[in-house]
Each structure stands twice: as C-alpha cells, then as structure tokens.
C-alpha cells in the first residue's frame, strides 16, 4: 500500500456506460460527526445517488458498516442497492446473513452494560454493536481489551476496528465479500468496479476494485491500495454531482 497523503491524483470522470459505483457512507459520502446519530446528510445527496443509479442502469450500491435500517433512514429518496453491517445485510439482493448468531442478544447486553458502567457511547446494530470513545480517546485500550474478551467468549462475532470505536460484527462478512456478490447481479455485467472509501474497513474493498479492472478512491489521509485520492467527503460529493446528467 502507498502512503498517499496529497500525492495521488483525483479520479477521472465517472463513465456512466462502463463503470459500476460502490460508495462507503461515514467519512466518505458524509463527514465524520461527534456521534453516529449526528451525521449531517446534505439535502440533495439521496437525489444525487438516485440519479446516478439510474444513469448507471442500477449499478450503484452504498456499502457501509452501518445497520441497514439506519442507512435507509439517512438516505430516504434513494431506493437503490445498499449493503449494511459490514457486508452482512443488503437491500436489493439476497442478504448475505439470513439470521443473526443465536447469542446476539447476550453479546449486545454485555456491550450495553460495559458502556453504561464506563460512561461510553453504545451503538446497537442489527447484527452486533459498537463502543464509541470519540468523546474520550484515552479509553481506546480498555475498550479494545474488553472487545477481545467478548470475541473470545462469542466466537460467532469478530472485532471490527472503526474510527474512534470498536465493533463486534458477525464473523465471515466483509465489504469486499459484498462486492463479489453484488457484481454477480446482471446490472453489473461488463462494468468496471469503482469503490470510494475512507477507513481500514474499506481497504479490502478498495483493493478488490483495483484487482478487478476498476479502481479505488481513498477519501482522506493514510495508506491505501486505492489509485486515486480525494481529501474530503465534500470532494467526493462534488465528483458525484459532476457526473449527474442534467
Ligand atoms: O462503513 P462506514 O459507512 O464508514 O461506517 C463505519 C462506522 O461508521 C460510524 O461510526 C463512525 O462515524 C461516526 C459518525 O461520523 C463517528 O461518530 C464514529 O466515531 C465513527 O466510528 C457508525 O457509527 C458505525 O456503525 C459504522 O460501522
């Protein structure tokens, strides 16, 4: 992976006839916020996604670690493909995970209890949960240690590091796994995968797009397998808006 900070070029214009588009949500389509429920959705974002999906003949998907119901709430007005929970949930294709692991409720109770005792923010998710320490980054080590004990006790779940958070998600699911499934859908045939993402959870998907005759766009600083770079989510939104036919 290259250290790209400011050194890689901006992506070329989207090719509506030849590209397929996969877009991460937090830190990519929208700016990182102090809390998961505080993200600001630009008013025209769902419409831009809807127009682009139409132009790409349906070959567009939002691919996120968020729970699917949260994505649907945030992006009302966009009815296209969505993948949530780091590849476990989906709208518009068969959900990769049919049922949560049997001990989901027990795991979530442990996460919620720890968060309450420790004064941390707990985000309950469709198939897991996240402990957020953005308000006090000094808590990272203890949160990670607790997550490790949970992953040992609940082997159906895996640790998913996030920005100022640690998540437990069902083991065996990933965003690149979701891309492999999405691209089996007929509307993706013959199109080059273009993936935009900002976080470590996006790196395998960025590498997947690069390895399948497409390309990755890394949003923000840091090492990445992506060939292209944009500094901030608003730059990605400008790039998307420029591709919308008027
Ligand atoms: O795959 P993504 O769409 O990038 O989602 C990854 C996680 O994003 C969310 O947490 C992050 O964004 C929050 C809002 O900006 C921020 O407060 C938090 O510190 C970040 O970690 C979301 O809450 C998680 O469920 C997602 O998995």
Task: Explain what you see.
The protein is of the alpha/beta class. Helix content is 30%, strand content 23%. The strands form three sheets. It has a seven-stranded mixed beta sheet, with helices on both faces. The chain has a four-stranded antiparallel beta sheet with strand order 6-7-9-8, covered by helices on one side. Strands 1-12 form a two-stranded antiparallel ribbon. A hairpin with a 4-residue loop joins β4 and β5. The longest helix has 15 residues. The radius of gyration is 18 Å and the shape is globular. The relative contact order is 0.20. The model has no long low-confidence stretch (mean pLDDT 96). The structure holds the ligand O=P(O)(O)OC[C@H]1O[C@H](O[C@H]2O[C@H](CO)[C@@H](O)[C@H](O)[C@H]2O)[C@H](O)[C@@H](O)[C@@H]1O. The ligand O=P(O)(O)OC[C@H]1O[C@H](O[C@H]2O[C@H](CO)[C@@H](O)[C@H](O)[C@H]2O)[C@H](O)[C@@H](O)[C@@H]1O binds next to β6, β7 and β9.
Quick synopsis:
The protein is an alpha/beta fold and 246 residues long.
Indicate the CATH class of the largest domain: Alpha Beta
Average of per-residue pLDDT values? 96
Net shape: globular
What does the largest sheet look like?
7 strands, mixed
Cα-to-Cα separation, first versus last residue: 37 Å
Helix content estimate = 25-40%
Structural class: alpha/beta
Radius of gyration: 18 Å
Molecules bound to protein: ligand L263DTV3
Order of helices and strands: EEHEHEEHEEHEEHEHEEEH
Number of strands: 13
As an assembly, this protein is single chain
The assigned CATH architecture of the largest domain is 3-Layer(aba) Sandwich
Uncertain spans, ≥5 residues at pLDDT below 50?
Answer: none
Q: Please tally the helical runs, counting DSSP H or I stretches of 4 or more residues.
A: 7
């Amino acid at each position: 992976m290259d250290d790209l900070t400011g050194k890689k070029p901006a992506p070329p214009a989207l090719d509506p006839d030849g590209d397929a588009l996969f877009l991460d949500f937090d830190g990519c389509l929208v700016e990182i916020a102090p809390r998961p429920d505080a993200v600001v959705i630009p008013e025209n974002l769902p419409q831009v996604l809807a127009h682009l999906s139409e132009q790409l003949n349906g070959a567009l998907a939002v691919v996120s670690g968020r729970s699917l119901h949260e994505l649907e709430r945030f992006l009302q007005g966009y009815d296209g493909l969505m993948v949530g929970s780091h590849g476990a949930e989906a709208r518009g294709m068969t959900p990769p995970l049919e049922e949560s692991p049997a001990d989901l409720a027990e795991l979530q109770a442990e996460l919620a209890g720890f968060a309450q005792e420790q004064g941390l923010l707990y985000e309950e998710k469709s198939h897991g949960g996240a402990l957020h320490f953005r308000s006090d980054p000094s808590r990272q080590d203890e949160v990670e240690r607790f997550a490790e004990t949970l992953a040992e006790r609940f082997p159906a779940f895996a640790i998913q590091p996030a920005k100022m958070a640690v998540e437990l998600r069902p083991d065996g699911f990933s965003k690149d796994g979701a891309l492999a499934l999405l691209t089996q859908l007929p509307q993706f045939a013959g199109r080059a995968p273009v993936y935009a993402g900002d976080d470590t959870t996006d790196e395998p998907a960025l590498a997947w797009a690069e390895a399948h005759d497409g390309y990755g766009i890394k949003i923000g600083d840091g090492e990445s397998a992506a060939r292209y770079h944009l500094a901030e989510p608003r730059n990605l939104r400008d790039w998307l808006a420029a591709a919308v036919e008027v």
